[in-house]
Amino acid sequence: MGSEVTIVGQGLAGTCLAWRLWDRGREFNLLHRGEGRSTSSISAGLLTPVTGRNVNPSWRLEEFLEEARDFYRKVETVLGEQFFHEVPIVRLFTDADERGRFDQKRSELNRWVAEFLEPRDCPCHAPHGGVIWKGGGRLDAQRFLEASRGFFREAGLLEVQEIDLNVPEPDGRISVLCAGAPGLGQGPFGFLPERRAKGEILTVRILGFPEDRIMSRNGWLIPLGGGIFRAGSTYRWDDLSDRPTNSGRAQIEELIRSFTDLPFEVLDHVAGIRPIVRQSRPVIGSHPEIENLFIFNGLGSKGVLYAPGAAGRLGAHLCEGHEIEEDLNVRTLFC
Ligand SMILES: Cc1cc2nc3c(=O)[nH]c(=O)nc-3n(C[C@H](O)[C@H](O)[C@H](O)COP(=O)(O)OP(=O)(O)OC[C@H]3O[C@@H](n4cnc5c(N)ncnc54)[C@H](O)[C@@H]3O)c2cc1C
After folding, report:
1. Domain containing 263: what range?
2. Is residue 55 situated within a structural domain?
């Protein structure tokens, strides 16, 4: 596949793919709409090894986590700035069922446990105790995207251009649609199942709250330093606008109050749409009928974990002809 590559979209998917092609010396250009915020730029950037009420390690965790860490370290070296911060994650159990599920899976989960917390050891009221996960952390997604954008702009590889996602024209070049939520439910890949979900996040100031670990229980509270925290997030499927809502704000304020009694001030409130195809497992690969048209989407709620590894596989396919694994390949999964 010798032709030049056009990457449509500069969220986590498009940016990670751009780095993978740059690393291989492959010619490409990176298009983005240039206005507003992408979902990636408002994302909390959390990478949590074990998630959900069922306390399950993420799909293919060890492999994708190692690839993600290596990838962010390499980009940090090129750009001279740190984006990925390893931070302990305090997961408090919501109820006895959740604690029971953890106890049942304890041997499988031990690899990710830094410490088990009895209720008396928890940083706030937590009658079912909790656990501190290791191996995760937080990507400063906004800075990662901005700094990457600056780098590719300097290299003459970035263009601000909105394309019609219903009729993208590969035009002899390879086009990879990394358009996130707008790229689902329409256009040539409109046949993919999708369940896009809106999410909202507050940035708040909580003076005197000493916590410097990420806290998680039905949502999360992330320390950014200087008394500033991000808190979220919500899930909604009936409103796919990116407008923040009063009900979203109220829900997150209640979440913050479950972690601390201290007063807080809301500094910012944002919303975005998660591009979900099959939970948070990415899909990559070529269109079944349109030559040279590819997709990289479906990062769901786990773009920080999966974007680097999925981009690596797509880069290896486009540059070295490596087969795309069946459980990532849009053709074997959905055609
Ligand atoms: C509230 C919230 C919190 C989240 N928190 C986390 C978290 O803590 N950890 C985590 O891993 N994930 C999190 N996510 C999920 C994460 O944000 C997504 O997985 C990720 O952003 C998806 O990246 P993407 O590149 O596929 O899409 P996007 O980031 O949406 O990027 C799409 C790109 O395509 C461009 N584009 C779209 N249409 C066009 C067009 N017609 N022409 C040209 N360009 C176009 C856009 O401008 C943008 O640059 C969160 C999501 C939300 C909503």
Report:
1. 197-274
2. no
Look at ligand 1, atom 50, and give the residue with the nearest C-alpha. 43
| Domain-embedded: residue 72 | no
206 Cα–ligand 1 center, Å: 28
Residues 254-283, mean pLDDT to the nearest whole number: 97
pLDDT > 90? residue 98: yes
Please say which residue of 227, 259, 274 terminates a domain.
274
| Domain boundary residue, one of 274, 304, 324 | 274
C-alpha distance from residue 217 to each of 76, 173, 244 (Å)? 31, 46, 22
Judge whether residue 127 has pLDDT over 80: yes
Q: Which residues does ligand 1 sit against, CB inside 6 Å? A: 8-14, 31-33, 38-40, 43-46, 162-163, 165, 178-182, 199-201, 232-233, 272, 274-275, 297, 299-305
Report yes or no: 264 and 228 within 8 Å, Cβ to Cβ: no
Q: How far is the CA of 122 from the centre of ligand 1 (A)?
A: 33
Locate all alpha helices (DSSP H) within the chain, ordered by sequence: 12-23, 39-42, 61-79, 96-104, 106-109, 141-154, 246-259, 303-320, 330-334
Both tokens assigned to 172: 């002899």
pTM, rounded to two decimals: 0.97
Confidence label for 166 from pLDDT (cuts 50, 70 and 90): confident
* Residue 238 exposed, middle or buried by CB count within 10 Å (0-12, 13-18, 19+): exposed
